[in-house]
Amino acid sequence: MGRKLEASLAILNGAIGDYLVRTGNGLATTMALVARSGDDVPLAFERAALTRALPEASPHVAIFVHGLMSTETIWTMSDGTDYGTLLARDLGVTPLYVRYNSGLAIADNGANLSRALDAFVAAYPVPIESLVTVGHSMGGLVIRSACHVARLERRAWLPLVKKAIYVGTPHLGAPLERVGRTVSRLLRTIDDPYARLVGEIADLRSDGLKDLGDADLRHEDRAANAARGSDRLRDPNHPVPLLPEIQHYLVAGTLARSAWLATLFGDSLVPVRSATAGLVDPASGALPPSHVKVLDGMSHIMLARDAEVYAAIRNWCR
Amino acid sequence: MTTANRLRGLRALIEDAVDQGASAVERVHRATASRPFDVLDHVAPIAPAARGVRLVHDVTVAGVYEAIRQINHLVGATLEMAIEVVERASEDDDPGAPARPEPASDEANPMVGEAAQPPTAS
């Protein structure tokens, strides 16, 4: 299938992917791992098949998880390389790319990813010594959700994860979604059929998109928000901590030159405070400064395919 | 995900959009029309006549939107048959090919078929 079609399907899945799954629609994307960006054939989790698909399988594996309304081609740079192929060249890491329906709840994608990685690790041709996860935007939250589920279910892949890199991930939620949620709620309260219709249409957005508002990693978090009728615009206090046994690294982008604009709008979609999980404050001491990279003049999409970001990732993966 | 399945998905999506879009517009139409009728209902001399007009209006509106939905389902069913015919023709052209080629079996890839399952919560 053509890349344009896949990109269109990724947007459709991000917008209404939960509806596609509920209605058994054939346009819903199924979660899969691919060995190369744009591969038509997903990896089968059988040792013989993986041995054929990954003839140079390394004990060091990097898993790339794209964000909302994207496919793994989001990582592709102008010269056709991506962070994965560059890590393979520079550090001998085997890169793998996750493809998934970003319209499903983050908790569902996290559970699916956890199951997939369990099957993948069991069938991998050589014993895995280290797993590095790299998530762009929502992908970082899916990874966190998967780690949370894997910890509860004692999945074999979790102890292999040594480092987790989050690129433009809204750890404290995305203010744009919170504003959209509030506006759609207001529209539905207006006693006017047209305003209510616009509110209903706005409310059609997927579970995955809605989860971005408060970065809900678990079903209980989104249920609690729904029960509370959450219409707060402030960052939520996240109930799922970063797992201490993993080394975490954060990349954030800022577009605006002015400091306060950069703080508010960050890379245009994710504010710096959300992308850095509120951990850049030295007083919190949660992450060493060397684990956080804030890049000026970097848009949300460019964070997934930029040489400077790659340099940071390579440095952290050494 | 075969091409035929994607075509079926697209057909279903368009049918759903027309169906639900027609219902949403019908709701707005009825709500908008009810305002002048509600006012006329309080004007004693013309209230009985206005009620008659309202009844005719409501029945007509319901009929029109129901007709849109029925035609939509008919077009959807016809497209489904067309997809089926094309799919069978391509299978006849290539009898050695599997009817529903999938890149990995369910056992080999636990995620295959996941999309067909509803999320555990929404």
Question: How would you explain this protein's 3D organization?
Answer:
The complex is a heterodimer of chains A (318) and B (122). Chain A is α/β, with parallel strands linked by helices and 318 residues long. Chain A has two domains: 3-173 and 235-317, Rossmann fold (3-Layer(aba) Sandwich), CATH 3.40.50; 175-228, no CATH class. Chain A has twelve helices and seven strands. Chain A has helices at 3-22, 47-53, 83-91, 106-123, 138-152, 175-189, 193-202, 207-214, 219-228, 259-265, 272-275, 307-317, and strands spanning 32-34, 60-65, 94-99, 130-136, 161-167, 247-254, 292-296. Chain A has a seven-stranded mixed beta sheet with strand order 1-3-2-4-5-6-7, with helices on both faces. In chain A, strand 4 (130-136), helix 5 and strand 5 (161-167) form a beta-alpha-beta unit. In chain A, helix 4 (106-123) crosses helix 5 and helix 6 packs across helix 8 (207-214). The longest helix of chain A has 20 residues, at 3-22. Chain A is globular. The two termini of chain A are 36 Å apart. The radius of gyration of chain B is 24 Å and the shape is rod-shaped. With 122 residues, chain B is an all-alpha fold. Chain B has one domain. The model of chain B is unreliable at 100-106 and 112-122 (pLDDT under 50). Chain B has helices at 3-41, 47-93. Helices cover 70% and strands 0% of the residues of chain B. Chain A binds chain B through residues 9, 18, 20-32, 40-46, 49, 101, 104-105, 107-108, 111-112, 115-116, 119, 193-194, 197, 200-201, 207, 219, 222-223, and chain B through 1-2, 5-10, 12-13, 16, 24, 27-28, 31-32, 103-105, 108-122.
